[in-house]
Amino acid sequence: MKISKMTNDFMNDKDSVFLDKQTVDLPITHRFYTLAQALADYRGVDILPYTDNNELLTGLVREGAIKHYQKLLNDNPPPQACVLIVITDEPRPRLLLTRRSACLNSHAGEVSLVGGKRDDTDKSSAEVALREACEEVGLVGADAQILGYLPMQISKKGLLVRPVVACVGAEVVNKLVPSEDEIARLFWLPFEVLQTVPMDWAFQRMLPNKTAKLHTPAWVYDCDDDGVPEVVWGLTGRILASLMEIGFGVRYAWYYKVV
C-alpha cells in the first residue's frame, strides 16, 4: 500500500529543484508501516516553535524570536540542514546516535543524530541526510529505507533542520565506522529508552551577566556500564521527542528553565 500523504507542499516555489518531503511506499506488512503512516498523516505546523517554555529567551530577544518564527511559518522555506534518525529493523529496535568530536566548532562533545548542512548539489532532504550519514559513519544509502519525515526544528544557530526517519537491517549495526574528524564515538540507543519519561537534567550555562543552571529534559543512557552516561538533550532530544509524539502518540513536556 502506498503512503501518499507525505507529498503535501514538499516542493518549495522559491527552490523548485529541491524535494523536501517525498512519498514513501511501504508494504502493509513492514515492521514500521504504522510509524510511516503516522508520519504521513501529520498535519501540524511544519516548523516547530522554539520559544515555548524557553527561559533562555527573554525580553526583546524573545519578542524577536517570536516574530522570526511567524515569518518562517509564512515564508515556508526549505530546510538548511537535515538529520537522519536511523532505527534498526529488529524485534527490539535500536536508534543510532553519535557523540560529536570535542574539536568541532558546533555542538562539540554533544550527543547528536547523523546529519549536517545542505549542499547546493543536494536534490532532496533524504539525499542530504543520507550523504551526511555516509560521511560521518559510513552508512550506505542502499542499506537504508526511508520511513518518513518530521517537522523541522530550529537549531540554536538558527538553522532549519529537517529530520528524516529511516530503518536499516540489524546487520548494518556492525558495519558502521565513525569518521575521526567529526565523530568521537557512535552508539545504539535501545528504543525502549525513549519510551521512558526523560529526566530533569541540569547544566552549568554561561548567560550574558551570570552563570546559571539550565534545567531541561534529557534521556541518560550508560551504554558501556562504566558510570559515564551519554546525555541526549537539546536539539537531538527535541527531535526524538517529536518522533515519539507524532510517530507513537507519546508526548513529553520539553522546556529550558534557568535557575
TrEMBL record:
Protein name as it appears in the record: NUDIX hydrolase
Output the InterPro entries linked to this UniProt entry: CoAse, NUDIX_hydrolase-like_dom_sf, NUDIX_hydrolase_dom
Q: Which cofactors does this protein require?
A: Mn(2+); Mg(2+)
Molecular function terms from GO: coenzyme A diphosphatase activity; metal ion binding
Q: Where do the Nudix hydrolase domain residues begin and end?
A: 78-211
Keyword Magnesium annotated = yes
Alphabetized, the UniProt keywords read: Hydrolase, Magnesium, Manganese, Metal-binding
Q: Which CDD domains match?
A: NUDIX_CoAse_Nudt7
